[in-house]
Specification:
The protein is of the alpha/beta class. It has ten helices and eight strands. The chain has a single domain, classed as Rossmann fold.
Amino acid sequence: MEYRYALSGNTKIYYQERGSGDPLVLIMGFGADGSVWEKHALIYEKYFRCILIDNRGIGRSGQPKGPYTTLMMAGDVIAVMDHAGIQQARIAGISMGGAIGQELAINYPHRVISLALISTWAKFNNYAKAVYENLKHVRVHLPGEEFMELLQLWIFAPPYYKNNWDELKNAAGINKNIQTREGFEGQLDACIGHDAVNRLEQINIPVLITVGGMDIFTPPAFSDILHNHIRGSRLSIYPEGGHVHHWEDLERFNTETLHFFLKN
């Protein structure tokens, strides 16, 4: 698959295109590159021109020393859209990608048609900040496979472990895209510093919010804040899903988000 890159300041931001039609920009969460959208893009690309971005700090994109901010990373997305000749797009953002999506809708409202906010937040409380700060220390001291096993415990819900134990164990040992310490910590800083609560009322486009009912990483209360502050938004809860309910209940998630973007 062919990658292209846009220049955002002095940082290269890589992306790939798939499918044809109206543009749909897919923004991943921290610690994962654009290829992690694969199981969703397989469906979306039948209807949309999908843009899968490697965020600043991961994959093929530049990994400069941080801190990063979600506003800075929204600027990276705009650089990609400009490079790809896209004036307006639908946006889907998972976790950190959802925080970036909020900044896009607030700061570049004429560039965003509709928005899906997946397992995300408007502002961290002190507990969440402590968790993410602790991740910096844990990653330095644990081997990669052990760190991934720990992370999986936080992002997958218990019901998924019941039938997918072997899959999760094997996946923990796969690390296709090495992320530098600078990239990892820069992305975490963007997550920790994100605060859009008092600006969410500025979002005046169709918004779908999805969250796992058993998400302990970005709990449903965070999505409630988004829903209560974004007029006309729709909140969809996946009762047995965790932070990655979009994988745990793939068929429902793909169907729901596809219908949302086809209508909006």
